[in-house]
Design a protein that fits this description.
- The protein is α/β, with parallel strands linked by helices.
- The protein folds into 2 domains: 7-141 and 209-249, Vaccinia Virus protein VP39 (Rossmann fold); 145-207.
- The chain is built from 7 helices and 11 strands.
- The strands form 2 sheets. It has a 7-stranded mixed sheet, sandwiched between helices. Strands 6-7-8-9 form a 4-stranded antiparallel sheet.
- β7 (166-177) and β8 form a beta hairpin.
- It is globular and about 55 Å long.
């Protein structure tokens, strides 16, 4: 099942995530795209946080996403000649008539795949679309066991102006499902508009992973070579790591 971004959440996506995420992962993914000489595919382009920068720098980049709301916003940022570079498809079963030197699925794309059958299908589908020697990079966060057990209640992760004098706030609550390895997330947006206070909820699950589970998953796939790093600076996994950065090579 796909949990697509609602229109309102897509509307505020750039404002929130340029602040919350750019300092964490932007340099890494843009750097990987820059050093790739051939064709690149970004899975989960969203509103183009990486895609627009890479395309503007001359990368031969294509993108796909499952959310019409996000894709519509991205199209509005692109020249019409580049609209054909973005496609509304899923990582699990997309089909493109080309192969790539680098495929990336940044910012938790893989954690939206709830079922293990879809996870394997996705990895093997990416493998099919890579050139020999091509790489697939995706990330997942390392679970915080305390947060998994207790959940989070009404934690504000963004509060700022989206237009002069108009504010938007996002609050996050989570409910763990330990048996199914899910974090059930309730995002609440509250914003000022037309003299009114508005709000909207979005409920979505994320599938969390542990290290050896990820290793077994990749080893069950068609990939024979991979490594898992512990952060976006290229460091090995250690007890202080907060990220799984999975790099597979065909």
């Amino acid at each position: 099942m796909a949990y697509e971004y609602p229109d309102t959440f897509a509307r505020f996506y750039d404002l929130i995530y340029h602040q919350l995420r750019d300092s964490a992962d932007s340099a890494f993914y843009i750097g990987e795209i820059r050093k790739t000489k051939g064709r690149v595919l970004e899975i989960g382009t969203g509103t183009g946080r990486f895609f627009t920068t890479a395309l503007g720098e001359g990368a031969d980049i294509y993108g796909l996403d499952i959310s019409p709301s996000m894709m519509n916003l991205l199209r509005g940022k692109l020249d019409k000649k580049d609209h054909s570079r973005i496609i509304l498809q899923s990582i699990v079963d997309f089909r493109l008539n080309m192969k790539f030197d680098l495929i990336v699925a940044p910012f938790r794309v893989f954690m939206h795949l709830i079922e293990k059958e879809d996870q394997i299908k996705a990895i093997n589908n990416v493998y099919l679309h890579l050139k020999r020697g091509g790489r697939f990079i995706f990330d997942a966060f390392i679970p915080d066991l305390k947060a998994l057990l207790n959940g989070i209640t009404n934690q504000t992760d963004f509060n700022g102006e989206y237009e002069p004098g108009k504010r938007v706030k996002r609050t996050v609550s989570t409910r763990p499902d330990l048996i199914n390895q899910l974090i059930n997330i309730d995002f609440l947006l509250e914003w000022d508009e037309d003299g009114e206070k508005k709000q909207e909820h979005w409920f979505t699950p994320l599938r969390y992973f542990f290290r050896y589970e990820l290793e077994h998953l990749v080893e069950r796939s068609d990939f024979k070579y991979y490594k898992i790093l512990g952060d976006f600076h290229g460091n090995e996994l250690n007890e202080d790591s907060k990220e799984f950065i999975v790099i597979c090579q065909k």
